[in-house]
Amino acid sequence: MRNNCLSCGTIFTVPDQGKLVIKESYFNHFPKPLPLTVEDKDEVHTVFSYRSHEELKGALEQWNDGNIPHIRIHVLDPSTDRSHPIPLTHLYERITRPDLVSIIHKGEFQAHLQPIMDIKMKKVIGYEALLRTNHASIHPGELFSFASDAGLQSMLDQKARRAAVKAKAEHLQKGEKIFINFLPSTIYDPDFCLAHTFQMVKEYDVPSEDLVFEVVETERITNVDHLKTILEKYKASGMKTALDDVGAGYSSLEMLRLLQPDYVKIDRSYIQDCHIQPEKQSFLNQVMADAGRLTIDVLAEGIETPEEWNWLAALGVHFGQGYLIGRPAPFPHAAILP
To answer: Would strands 72-77 and 82-87 be described as parallel, antiparallel, or unpaired?
Structure first.
């Protein structure tokens, strides 16, 4: 696992000219040979050479009718004599979109801040950090999707955490919370992988108690014990934790008991028109009851109308976030009070 963690911080540069080393046994599963020059071959491996990224990309698209096999290969860089292991699918994505590889590698993005308000006090208590690239044509969703396809999720997640902590240090006061999204699947070994985050917090001299690490909405929990260990590591360092997307797979009272987050965030789909939809009101009442028994704070996302705000305030929801309060921006900004 630690090899995976170590790879979070570096991306090897795919050479313009190089060689691929592929196990001979893999070719038994494909109807035609890989259309590249064979440099060497034995009973175990075949070595192919390519003269450009375009040649390699074209060969992979021709092979197996464009269905790139998810097999692990080695790329040999003749300029360094080094060998780099990588799944072939990841290699293909990286040579196809070098611009996105560069953005992730160089960290060409920043954290935009969306205010979170105490509903009862009508006071901003913190901000959620939302990743935005420095390139207007690149949507954050495109970057995250590419990172998943190219095997760069760990690096992107790590650098996004850094951008969020940096934004906290530069723009927020002591006592103002910063909610930071993270992908549990990128944290292979909590003791080892989170050491980088804890060192980053020290580097920027940010109070641990002002950081809230939030399981992102796109994650689906497959290993509850692993996630519990991660959350416990954050808490042991004095940080807070949050579960997003309540109601979509892991919102049961038992799950909340197991994970004991400090906050649960209710997705916009349950907030929209909550003042006039009885089924949503029933769900929100249940969440408040469950969270209350466990002393977990509830945060409603996506509040866009005064009617939604007023109904949630009457219910006793603790915190709110959404366009009615404030949109994401590069700097902290005054919330629009309902």
So the answer is: antiparallel
**Bridge partners, residue 37, by sequence:** 49
The reply to whether 49 and 157 lie within a common domain is: no
Give the pLDDT of residue 252. 61
Range of the domain at 73: 2-95
Amino acid sitting at position 275: H
* pLDDT level of residue 248 (50, 70, 90 thresholds): low
H or E element that contains 191: helix 190-203
Q: For residue 190, what pLDDT is reported?
A: 85
Identify the CA nearest to 233 among candidates 281, 198, 274, 277. Answer: 198
Mark whether 155 and 284 lie in a shared domain: yes
Give the separation between CA 338 and CA 333, rounded to whole angstroms.
Answer: 15
Residue 327 included in any domain: no
Domain end marker among 68, 95, 122: 95
Confidence label for 285 from pLDDT (cuts 50, 70 and 90) = very high
Task: Give 19's strand partners.
Answer: 49, 76
Classify the C-alpha dihedral 6-10-11-17 as positive or negative.
negative
Residues 149 and 228 grouped into a single domain: yes
| Cα dist from 268 to 70, 217, 272, 304, 320, whole Å | 36, 11, 6, 9, 11
- Give the torsion sign (CA, 126, 243, 241, 186): negative
Residue among 333, 300, 329, 293 at smallest CA distance from 316: 300
CATH number at residue 312: 3.20.20.450
Tokens of 147: 């990172």
> 135: which DSSP letter?
-
